C-alpha cells in the first residue's frame, strides 16, 4: 500500500473542520489542520462565560440550514439543539417597534402607510421569487427604493444596509438581499412564527465534537500556528519551517490567501482578483447583567445617530438558566477594519456603546453590568456588490494541488455556518476526486 497522501488544511473554522472530518475518514489521507488562533471554531468560536461556552459573535441557526443540521445529527448532538421562538424589533423614532409579523409591519409608524404596504408586497414577491439571477446587476438599494419607496428606505432598509455594509451600503447586489428575505421567510415553521436554533453549550459543542472525531481519525491539529506561505511546489511555510504536502486547502479570507502566494507574474491577475474582494470587520461587546432590557431577542438599531447595528438579548432566545440566571447581551457592529472605531481600546468602545443604551432603554443602569467582553474580527463580512459573482474565486486555484474554500464564495446567500459545512463537504469531495484521478 502506498503512503497516505499528505493534506494540509489551513483554518480551523467550520469549513476547515468539516473538510478535515471528511478527508480524515479516508485512510489514504494523512491530514494536518493548522489554525492561527489559539482555539478552533473561527468566526463561530466561543469563550467561557458563567461556566458555559458562548459565541464571540451572536449565532443561531435557521430551519433551512440543512447541511449543518445533518452534521449535528451525525455527530450525535441532536439532543443539544433547541428551537426557540424569535422576537425581532426595530429601534427607530426613539422606540422599539415589534417587527416580526405582517401585522407588525402594518403598524410600523416610522414608515408611512403606503411604504408599509409596498414593503409587505415586496417581501411577499421576494419570498416566492425563486430565480435570483435577475437580481445580480441591480443594487438592493435601487431595487428596494423602487419597490418600497423613500419612507420605507429611510426607516427600514437603508439603516439595515448601512449597518451591515457601512459605506458600501448602496453597492450591494439585490441578489444578496433576495436571499436574506427568501431564506428568512421560508424559515418559519408551518403557520407559526420564526424558529431559531441554538445549542445547549453553544456552537462550541459542534467544534468540540468535530475536534474529538478529528483526533480519533488521526488528524494532527496545530492551533496558534500561522501558515505564512504556500508555494507552487507543494510546500508551505509554517512557523518559519518549510513543510511539504500533496494537497492543500486554504479556508481563510481571499485577500489573506493572496498574501501567502508566490509573487510571480503568472499569479498577478489571480492575486488581484482575490484582493478585489473587500471585507468589513465586526466588533461585538458582550455583557451580563441582572437587569432585563425588554422582551426582544433581536433589535435592529435604525436611528441615524446609532453607533451600532444590533442589540441582542441572547437570553430572551434561550433563557438565562444556563448563564447562572444572568441576562446575556450582545451589541454588534460591522466596521471598517482599518477605521478609527474598530481600533478603539475596549474600554472606549464599551463606554461609547453603553452611552447610547439609555436612548433605547431609559432604565438601563451601567452599574448593574457585571461582566464585559469585547471581540473583534478583521474579516467578518465580504462586500457582495453588483456583479459580485464574477469576483468569486474557484475552489481550484492556479497553484498545483492547492484549493480554496471560504465564505467569499458563498453567494447569493449570506455567509453562515451552514454554508461553511456545505462547502467543507464539497471541497473534501473535490480533493478526493483529484487524488484518485
Ligand atoms: C457577527 C457575525 C454573526 C454571525 N452570525 C451567524 C449566525 O447567526 N449563524 C450562522 O450560521 N453563521 C453566522 N455567522 C457566520 C459564520 O460564523 C461564518 O460563516 C462561519 O463561521 C465561517 O466559517 P469558515 O470556516 O468558512 O471561516 P472562519 O470561521 O473565518 O475560519 C477561517 C479560519 O482560518 C484561520 N486562518 C486564516 N488564515 C490563516 C493562516 N494563514 N494560518 C492559519 N490559520 C488561518 C482563521 O484564524 C480562521 O479561524 C456570523 C458571523 C459574524 C461575523
Relevant terms:
437 residues; alpha/beta; seven-stranded mixed β-sheet; five-stranded parallel β-sheet
How does this model look, in words?
- This protein has 437 residues and is an alpha/beta fold.
- Among the domains are: 5-59 and 202-277 and 392-435, 3-Layer(bba) Sandwich (FAD/NAD(P)-binding domain), CATH 3.50.50; 101-193, no CATH class.
- It has 14 helices and 20 strands.
- It has a 7-stranded mixed β-sheet, sandwiched between helices. A 5-stranded parallel β-sheet has the order 10-2-1-14-20, covered by helices on one side.
- A hairpin with a 4-residue loop joins strand 11 (227-230) and strand 12.
- The longest helix is centred in the last third of the chain and has 19 residues, at 417-435.
- The model has no long low-confidence stretch (mean pLDDT 96).
- Bound molecules: flavin-adenine dinucleotide.
Residue stretches low in confidence (pLDDT < 50, at least 5 long) are none
* Morphology call: globular
Which CATH architecture of the domain at 5-59 and 202-277 and 392-435? 3-Layer(bba) Sandwich
- How many E strands? 20
For the biggest sheet, the summary is:
7 strands, mixed
Instruction: Compute the separation of the termini in Å.
Output: 17 Å
CATH topology group of the domain at 5-59 and 202-277 and 392-435? FAD/NAD(P)-binding domain
Cα radius of gyration in angstroms? 22 Å
Mean pLDDT: 96
CATH class of the domain at 5-59 and 202-277 and 392-435 equals Alpha Beta
Q: How many helices?
A: 14
User: Which structural class matches the secondary elements?
Assistant: alpha/beta
The strand order across the widest sheet is 8-7-16-17-18-15-19
What would you give as the CATH superfamily of the domain at 5-59 and 202-277 and 392-435? FAD/NAD(P)-binding domain
Helix content: 25-40%
Bound molecule kinds, no repeats: flavin-adenine dinucleotide
Task: Provide the β-strand percentage band.
Answer: 15-25%
Amino acid at each position: 500500500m502506498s503512503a497516505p497522501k499528505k493534506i494540509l488544511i489551513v483554518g480551523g473554522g467550520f469549513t476547515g473542520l468539516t473538510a478535515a472530518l471528511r478527508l480524515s475518514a479516508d485512510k489514504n489521507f494523512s491530514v494536518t489542520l493548522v489554525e492561527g488562533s489559539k482555539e478552533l471554531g473561527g468566526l463561530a468560536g466561543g469563550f467561557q462565560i458563567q461556566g458555559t461556552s458562548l459565541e464571540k459573535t451572536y449565532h443561531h441557526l435557521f430551519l433551512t440550514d440543512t447541511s449543518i443540521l445533518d452534521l449535528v445529527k451525525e455527530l450525535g448532538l441532536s439532543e443539544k439543539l433547541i428551537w426557540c421562538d424569535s422576537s425581532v424589533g426595530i429601534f427607530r423614532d426613539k422606540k422599539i417597534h415589534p417587527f416580526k409579523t405582517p401585522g407588525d409591519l402594518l403598524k410600523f409608524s416610522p414608515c408611512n402607510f403606503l411604504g408599509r404596504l409596498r414593503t409587505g408586497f415586496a417581501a411577499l414577491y421576494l419570498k416566492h421569487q425563486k430565480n435570483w439571477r435577475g437580481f445580480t446587476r441591480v443594487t438592493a438599494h435601487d431595487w428596494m427604493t423602487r419597490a418600497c419607496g423613500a419612507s420605507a428606505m429611510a426607516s427600514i432598509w437603508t439603516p439595515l444596509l448601512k449597518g451591515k455594509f457601512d459605506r458600501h451600503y448602496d453597492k450591494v447586489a439585490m441578489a444578496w438581499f433576495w436571499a436574506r428575505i427568501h431564506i428568512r421567510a421560508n424559515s418559519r415553521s408551518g403557520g407559526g412564527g420564526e424558529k431559531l436554533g441554538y445549542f445547549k453549550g453553544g456552537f462550541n459543542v459542534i467544534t468540540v465534537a468535530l475536534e474529538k472525531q478529528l483526533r480519533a481519525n488521526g488528524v494532527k491539529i496545530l492551533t496558534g500556528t500561522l501558515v505564512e506561505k504556500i508555494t507552487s511546489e507543494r510546500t508551505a511555510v509554517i512557523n518559519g519551517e518549510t513543510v511539504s504536502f500533496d494537497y492543500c486547502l486554504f479556508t481563510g479570507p481571499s485577500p489573506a490567501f493572496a498574501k501567502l502566494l508566490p509573487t510571480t507574474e503568472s499569479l498577478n491577475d489571480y492575486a488581484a482578483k482575490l484582493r478585489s474582494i473587500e471585507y468589513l470587520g465586526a466588533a461585538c461587546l458582550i455583557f451580563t447583567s441582572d437587569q432585563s432590557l425588554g422582551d426582544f431577542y433581536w433589535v435592529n438599531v435604525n436611528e441615524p445617530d446609532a453607533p451600532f447595528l444590533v442589540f441582542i438579548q441572547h437570553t430572551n432566545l434561550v433563557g438565562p438558566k444556563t448563564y447562572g440566571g444572568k441576562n446575556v447581551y450582545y451589541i454588534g457592529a460591522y466596521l471598517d477594519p482599518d477605521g478609527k472605531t474598530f481600533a478603539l481600546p475596549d474600554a472606549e468602545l464599551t463606554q461609547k456603546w453603553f452611552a447610547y443604551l439609555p436612548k433605547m432603554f431609559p432604565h438601563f443602569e451601567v452599574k448593574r453590568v457585571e461582566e464585559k467582553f469585547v471581540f473583534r474580527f478583521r474579516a467578518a463580512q465580504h462586500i457582495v456588490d453588483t456583479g459580485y459573482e464574477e469576483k468569486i474565486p474557484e475552489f481550484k486555484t492556479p497553484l498545483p494541488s492547492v484549493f480554496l474554500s471560504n465564505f467569499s464564495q458563498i453567494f447569493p446567500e449570506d455567509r453562515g455556518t451552514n454554508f461553511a459545512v456545505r462547502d467543507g463537504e464539497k471541497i473534501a469531495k473535490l480533493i478526493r476526486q483529484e487524488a484518485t484521478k
